[in-house]
């Protein structure tokens, strides 16, 4: 190991806590995290919710992101039982119940791209 005795710290910011490499064990990281006013990746994550949480979601003003439990959400997922199906020429309306509430969901059908053999929806 005496061959490494001439090791010196570099001047480009790779100083580790104990001179063992570029790992920052306990010090502060240099640079900034995210930009001001931008959305974080957490805002874009897929969040599992209940129907009650969807129905209780708040919108601060028209066009604002909805908030569930005080956090903005843009993509959600939920699991429930289909209680009612209403097929129509331009959409299929489903009433879904998950035990916490019931919600109406619409699946829109693109009539220009619809093939008679494929209704675009399967049960």
TrEMBL record:
State the UniProt keywords alphabetically: DNA-binding, Nucleus
Q: Name one GO molecular function term.
A: single-stranded DNA binding
List locations, semicolon-separated.
Nucleus
Spell out the InterPro entries in the cross-references. NA-bd_OB-fold, RFA2-like
User: Does the entry feature the keyword Iron, yes or no?
Assistant: no
Any one of the GO CC terms: DNA replication factor A complex
Q: Please list the GO biological process terms of this entry.
A: DNA replication; double-strand break repair via homologous recombination; nucleotide-excision repair
User: Where is this chain compositionally biased, Gly residues type?
Assistant: 14-38
Region of interest (Disordered), ranges:
11-44
PANTHER family for this protein: REPLICATION PROTEIN A-RELATED, REPLICATION PROTEIN A2
Protein name, please?
A: Replication factor A protein 2
Query: Could you tell me which species this protein originates from?
Result: Fusarium oxysporum (Fusarium vascular wilt)
Task: Name the lineage.
Answer: Eukaryota, Fungi, Dikarya, Ascomycota, Pezizomycotina
